[in-house]
Each structure stands twice: as C-alpha cells, then as structure tokens.
Amino acid sequence: MDHKNSEEAALVRRVQARDELAFREIVERYQAKVFSIIYGILRNHNDAEDIAQQVFSKIYFSIRNFDFRSSLLTWIYKITVNECYDYLRKKRVRKLVYESDFSDEDALRMEAAEPAIDPAAPMDRQLAQQDLVAKLLDKVSAEDRTLILLKEVEGHSVEELAMMTGLNENTIKVKLFRTRQKLLKAAQRLGRTRPFGK
Amino acid sequence: MHRVIRDNLEQVLADSPLTGIAIKHHLDKCDECRGQIVQMREHAQMLRALRSTQDIEPRPGFYARVMERIEAEGPASIWHVFSESPFGRRIAVASMALALSIGVYMFTAEQPDATATHQIEIAGGEDQPGIDLTNTGAPDRDAVLVNLVTYRGQ
C-alpha cells in the first residue's frame, strides 16, 4: 500500500510544514484512539490525559521524521505504546527509589502490613495479570511490542499488518513468531510458565 | 518449535479451519509444539485483555492543553538534530570516530619526535658533535651548534 499518496499523507505534509490547522485535525482524528490505547494498557483515567498530551506533543515535534513507510496510525500507535511503557518504567523506578529510602526494619514492617494479594479475587487477578503483561512486553523491542499489540489487541490480520507497516507478510509472520518466543522465554524467567515441552 | 507449526503459527493460534490435517497430526504427536501453542494462546488471551472496554473521549479543551504543553516544551534544541534524526546520529558517530582517529594519530605521531629531542639532549650533554642526531641519519647542524654554544657559555 502506498502511504505517500493518500489523503492522510497530504495532511501529514501540511503538519510537516507547520500548519496548525492540520495538526489540530490530527489531534481530533486520533485523540479517542490514543486515549483508548493508553487506558487499555494503564487502566487509569488520570494518567491517560497526561500521557495523551505527551504523545501529541511528541507527534508535533517528530512528525518531520515521519517517512511514510508505515501508516500514520501505526506510527501514532507505536509512539503511544512507547510512552505508556516509559511511564510504567519510570513509575517502577520511582517506587524502587521510594522504597530504598526506608530502613530495612521499616520495609519489613510495611511488607507485613500490606494485604496479601488473593489470586482468587477477580480484581487482584486482573491486576496481577496486567502487571505480568507489562513486565513481559517490557522485554521485547518497541517495534515487536507494537506489532504484537496491533495483532492481538487491535485484532489486525497479518495482511493488514503488512499494509500498515510496509513490511511483507512473511516478515510480519517471522517477527510475530520471534516476539511470541521472547514472551515465552521471559515468562519462564519470571517463573510464570513451565519450560517448553514439559 | 518445529517448522511445520512455525510456518503456520498464526493460523494455528487462531484455530483457523484452514489448518491442515498434517499440522493437526503433528500437534497430536509433538508435546513440545503443543505445550508452546498452549502457552502462546494464554499470552494472546492476556494481551487481548488490554483491549479498552470503553470509548474514552478526552475532557473538552484537550487540543488547547496539548498546544500549551508544546509551547512550554518549546522548539527542539540544536542537539536534538543529533539525537532525533538517524542522519544526525550518523553525523555525530562519524564526527566522534574522526576525532578519535585524529587523536590516535596525533598521539602516535608525537612519540618519535619526543625520542628525537631526547637524543639531541643526550648528544649535547655528552659533547659528541657530528654524531647522527636524528632518526633519518642526517646530522642536525643547528642543534649541534646550539649545544656547543651553550656548553662553552657554561
């Protein structure tokens, strides 16, 4: 599919020429999609607004580098997912720094005071699963992560992914296979699955 | 995972009716492939849970807030050219490589000169005019004369 000669490409070229009306059109066209992606990953309304602003700010500053090899939506999707995982990573680091401020005694007392997660409770199970998915996806590259999410979360077929990314179908299949393998290995390292063939 | 499954992985994971009998037979026989497919299906299921269950629209005035943020962040500095664009990154790497090779060349090129100066000083100190003072074998007359004058002056 030719991403260079579409109506969307004309819009992108106008933004590249710093046409603010065109940028407004991009924001209005994609804001709901960006919010849904962020909310799907973080499940938090308050963070969604902040990250969505950051996503569109990034789009504004880096659209000059957009090379029309993929569709605009794929490019925006990638930026959005990356922002979410950057946010989760920073949040994890902040938590570690916060915890390192406590003495060992305090940390032990806090751990004892924290209610244990009950895997049988639906809410806890959902949170634990969300945490596991975030950890697993953090182990693969940004490109692979975008591809597997476009496949599984957005439900695109291999043919559609090939059109969206400008890669051929076999390359998509190989990339998906490798990503799935990496996720399995990461899950094994985290002790969440049994080794292959056992 | 065996090739027969790997080549048709997306079909197998989707449990597509197009999946051939050969693949089904292989999965019946091969524990390794079957185990991996089960785990991959579990992961796919977990990933699908990231699908947003509701349509979320931002609060009114979202575009204005985005523009405020863009203005606050300001235009990218000149250094962003080197960090953001692939071409800029290549230029930065090439410049660093060039600076490094010039540095290495300067360092290695200066070594023989220092030895030559040292030899001149030794020759002057031992008062042996006419000996070969340079690595090239040609006597450096000026240096010898300067040494002789200095010696007599002392």
Task: Describe the 3D structure.
The complex is a heterodimer of chains A (198) and B (154). Chain A has helices spanning 7-16, 20-42, 45-62, 72-100, 104-113, 122-137, 142-152, 158-165, 169-189. Chain A is mostly helical. Chain A has two domains: 1-85, Orthogonal Bundle (Rna Polymerase Sigma Factor, Chain: A); 119-191, Winged helix-like DNA-binding domain superfamily/Winged helix DNA-binding domain (Arc Repressor Mutant, subunit A), CATH 1.10.10.10. The longest helix of chain A is centred in the middle third of the chain and has 29 residues, at 72-100. The N and C termini of chain A lie far apart (43 Å). The N and C termini of chain B lie far apart (88 Å). In chain B, helix 7 (86-126) packs across helix 8 (141-153). Chain B is elongated. Chain B is mainly α and 154 residues long. Chain B folds into two domains: 3-48, no CATH class; 80-153, no CATH class. Classes of the chains: A mainly alpha (198), B mainly alpha (154). The A-B interface holds A 20, 24, 27-28, 31-32, 35-37, 39-41, 45, 48-49, 52-54, 56-57, 60-62, 65, 126, 129-130, 132-133, 136, 148-149, 151-154, 158, 173, 176-177, 180-181, 183-184, 187, 193-194, 196-198 and B 1, 6-7, 9-10, 31-32, 35-36, 39-40, 42-44, 46-52, 54-59, 62-63, 65-67, 69-70, 73, 76, 80, 84-86.
